[in-house]
Design a protein that fits this description.
Binding site for ATP: 594
Main location: cytoplasm
Distance between the termini: 70 Å
Number of strands: 36
Bound molecules: ligand ANZ, zinc ion
Motif ('HIGH' region): 41-51
Largest sheet: 7 strands, mixed
Structural class: alpha+beta
Protein name: Leucine--tRNA ligase
Number of helices: 27
Domain Leucyl-tRNA synthetase editing: 221-391
Length: 826
């Protein structure tokens, strides 16, 4: 069999495409716009199979939109600041910039060879000063709105990367970058106030529920973690005039169990614990705190862990009953959730009960659930039941057995006396954005001994990262920028006195929280983006990328978009209309990894089978969300299919542009049905099925050529042209080869979607016979699937049948769809 040379075709068409530049968005309003967005890569190393998969899937959509006549925005850029590249550079003793930009060039070259339909004129890198100038500008605007602020608190610390991490970057207690166990440190850091947007981030997911994967929404919902409950204020008893009366608030989801609170617990690492600690407990407390500081949150929350804690030598007063309860410090209460203090109700909360058991504290049941008394069994009873032992001073819940009413009544009582109020609490924390690392966007703030925090004026942006070539960039716990004397020492923009720049850099996720907006006008110099361009293109119609970003990047981008909306800079509140998560490419049932030695090299696969075969294999493997086990794939089979499709184009002898009406009807029907179905399948993201349908059409056409209507039939040309256009979404080189052989000018990528003739989609008809009194009175052409009632109605309406029935009464109609109607009349 003849074949085309893959390598030659790849060289040839790449040059032609670069010349024609078919994928540059016209951006002139002449056509309806579509924004196809894919998560931009980190420049660590060359592209791998995962990139190949996501780009192949994403490109089906982008190329389809081009064929449908939309003006498509399909941009590419690099998320080029950040830890992974910085760490890799340090390991190789290279400067992060050198390493990063070299990788970008390698990846860009690979993307071009891989023939992704990117608009290269919009390329951006977040580590370019033209880009991060606006990251800094946005930071300053957020700060003006009180949405970027500095505070001191215990933060997640990666001892390996020697930097703080956002909560979202701690996975199972480990650094999601390097896997080291995360510890806590008390540090003053910059935060974005995401918590102000918690409710809106939650509410607006409603509008995404049909277009985003449910598991992503569920993960975000869970991360935001909304809880309804109440704040309850407890007075702390003054100790014989030594200290002032103090009130401490707790957050509880069960205010109705207030009478069961037998002790009070403050997070050991909260400032409050230190403040409350009585002098005689100081030593015990300090040594306990040292121990707690070494623990990760995961350890602290583990329910099977023995409870530890220290009595603080103080008592809190129950605001309703007046009961005195001891105040403890413990690690199972977290400093940064709720208020960092809890009223412990051991009877109905297992963590509190474990603590009570460990320290021999009282257990009082206040909800009788019918289960054995927790004081005896040490099994808490969190369920519903009837209130007991819950009354004082003319107030009582006793006998009531409805939790909702119980909560309402106790909260009303607390509110009336000014000791509490109902409250909603979120698990979501503010986003810690400073990093003690070099390769990131500098924070545009100057710290002045006289003026305090001073923003760098807009006209002095960007604060450019110093080069520091030859300096030691290894993580040391403080940013390498702090040691760059020339850079860090500046005149205060406000008073002119000696001051210092903030030497931390921003989390890379800040850079990636707005890049999709920048793509709309990447060369704009009057702001982060041109509002008109953003209005034209955003929100992105389709976002494609990995589920590993389900929380971090997607939550942060949603937050940024909402803030920009509130600033009046964009007129929408959600950045991504639809989201698709691809599965993983694995090998032999396992994730590819160096240690398993099961990595598959993308470059080698392309060298061996060609770009198209690799792309086709990845798209054909299964539904996009499913993992692909490369060991089960057959790229050589894909290549064989592509050659078979291509051979069709050499067999066509009907002239270009000839009339097709007289062509073979069966083949025409197959073609038009395939094109119509392909459109629906692509809209439903069933790309693998779409490919299967193209394969069928190739087989049908081959049969028609060899054993049917023959190669000269215009229906053959029509079929092969359709195959070329459909294949252009997946196998652009092969499609271009076919298109040229069919006598067309490049590029098939912009040939346009074949127009479907609806008449050719009508199912084949069958002939139904209508008899009246045993005599055939009519023959009807009907659809094979016609319903009995429809067939009967059609028979009755036939003029020949009506004539035969004139003057008669219909006694009985027997319908055998789709072939026969028998009418008995008399
Ligand atoms: C009394 C109580 C009685 C509670 C009861 C539960 C059951 P979610 O649903 O996760 O919001 N809590 C509050 N702040 C805490 C902190 N900083 N660290 C650890 N635990 C804390 O949980 C809210 C409940 O978790 C609160 O309601 C509080 O215990 C505890 F039968 O208060 B509860
Ligand atoms: Zn100053």
């Amino acid at each position: 069999d003849v074949t085309y040379d893959v390598e030659t075709a790849q060289k040839k068409w790449r040059a032609v495409w670069e010349d024609l530049n078919p994928f540059q968005a016209a951006d002139d309003g002449s056509r309806e716009r579509r924004y196809a967005l894919t998560m931009f890569p980190y420049p660590s190393g060359d592209l791998h199979m995962g990139h190949a998969e996501v780009m192949a899937l994403h490109d089906v959509i982008a190329r389809y939109w081009w064929q449908r006549g939309y003006d498509v925005l399909n941009p590419i850029g690099w998320d080029s600041f950040g830890l992974p590249a910085e760490n890799a550079a340090i390991k190789r003793d290279e400067h992060p910039a050198t390493y990063t930009y070299a990788n970008i060039e390698t990846q860009a070259e690979s993307f071009r060879r891989y023939a992704v339909s990117f608009d290269w004129s919009r390329r951006l890198h977040t580590s370019d000063p033209e880009y991060y100038r606006w990251t800094q500008w946005l930071f300053l605007r957020f700060r003006e709105r009180g949405l970027a602020y500095r505070k001191s608190s215990p933060v997640n610390w990666c001892p390996n990367d020697q930097t703080v991490l956002a909560n979202e970057q701690v996975v199972g207690g480990m650094c999601d970058r390097c896997g080291a166990e995360v510890t806590k440190r008390e540090l003053t850091q910059w935060y974005f106030k995401v918590t102000d947007y918690a409710q809106r981030l939650l509410d607006d997911m409603e509008g995404l529920k049909d277009t985003w994967p449910e598991r992503v929404l569920a993960m975000q919902r869970n991360w935001i973690g909304r809880s309804e409950g109440a704040y309850v204020d407890f007075d702390i008893e003054p100790r014989d005039g030594q200290d002032e009366a103090l009130s401490v608030t707790v957050f509880t989801t069960r205010p109705d169990t207030l009478y069961g609170a037998t002790f009070f617990v403050v997070a050991a690492d909260a400032k409050l614990a230190d403040e409350l600690c009585a002098p005689e407990q100081r030593e015990a407390f300090d040594s306990y705190l040292t121990q707690v500081r070494k623990e990760s949150d995961i350890d602290r929350l583990a329910s099977d862990r023995p409870k530890t804690g220290v009595f603080l030598g103080r008592h809190a007063v129950n605001p309703v009953s007046g009961e005195r309860i001891p105040v403890w410090a413990a690690d199972y209460v977290l400093a940064d959730y709720g208020t960092g203090a809890v009223m412990a109700v051991p009877a109905h909360d297992q963590r509190d009960l474990d603590f009570a058991q460990a320290f021999d504290l009282p257990v009082r049941m206040v909800v009788d659930t019918g289960e054995p008394d927790p004081a005896q069994t040490f099994v808490a009873t969190p369920g519903d039941g009837t209130y007991v032992s819950s009354s004082s001073d003319g107030f009582s819940l006793d006998g009531l057995s409805d939790k909702v009413t119980g909560i309402r009544r106790i909260v009303e009582r607390l509110e009336a006396e000014g000791h509490g109020r109902s409250a909603v609490n979120f698990r979501l924390r503010d986003w810690l954005l400073s990093r003690q690392r070099f390769w990131g966007c500098p924070i545009p703030i100057v710290h002045c001994p006289t003026c305090g925090e001073v923003p760098v004026p807009d006209d002095q942006l960007p604060v450019v990262l110093p080069d520091l070539r030859g300096a030691d960039l290894k993580p040391k716990g403080t940013s390498p920028l702090a040691a760059a004397e020339d850079w860090v020492n500046v005149d205060c923009p406000s008073c002119g006195g000696p001051a210092k720049r903030d030497s931390d850099t921003m989390d890379t996720f800040v850079d990636s929280s707005w890049y999709f907006l920048r793509y709309c006008s990447p060369h704009y110099t009057d702001g982060p983006f041109d509002p008109d361009a953003v209005r034209d293109w955003m929100p992105a119609h389709q976002y494609v990328g990995g589920v590993e970003h389900a929380i971090l990047h997607l939550l942060y981008s949603r937050f940024f978009t909402k803030v920009l909306h509130d600033m009046g800079m964009v007129d929408f509140e959600e950045p991504f209309q639809a989201l698709m998560n691809q599965g993983q490419v694995i090998n032999q049932g396992k994730a590819m990894s160096k240690s398993l030695g099961n990595g598959v090299n993308l470059g080698e696969m392309i060298d061996r089978y060609g770009v198209d075969a690799v792309r086709l294999t990845l798209v054909f493997a299964g539904p996009p969300e499913d993992d692909i086990d490369w060991a089960d794939m057959s790229p050589s089979g894909s290549l064989k299919f592509l050659q078979r499709a291509w051979r069709l184009s050499g067999d066509v002898t009907a002239p270009v542009g000839g009339a097709v009406d007289a062509g073979d009807v069966a083949l025409r029907k197959a073609t038009h049905r395939t094109v119509a179905d392909a459109a629906q399948l692509i809209d439903g993201h069933r790309f693998n099925v779409m490919v299967a349908r193209v394969m069928e059409l190739v087989n049908t056409t081959r049969k028609a050529i060899d054993a049917g209507c023959g190669p000269a039939d215009p229906a053959v040309r029509e079929a092969v042209e359709a195959v070329a256009v459909l294949l252009s979404l997946v196998a652009p080189y092969t499609a271009e080869e076919m298109w040229a052989r069919l006598g067309h000018q490049p590029t098939v990528a912009r040939a346009g979607w074949p127009v479907v003739d609806e008449a050719l989609l009508v199912e084949d008809s069958v002939t139904a016979v209508v008899q009246v009194q045993g005599k055939v009175r009519a023959r009807l052409e009907v659809a094979p699937g016609i319903a009995e009632a429809d067939l009967e109605a059609a028979a009755m309406a036939d003029p020949g049948v009506q004539r035969a029935l004139e003057g008669k009464t219909v006694r009985k109609v027997i319908v055998r769809a789709p072939k026969l109607v028998n009418i008995v009349a008399g």
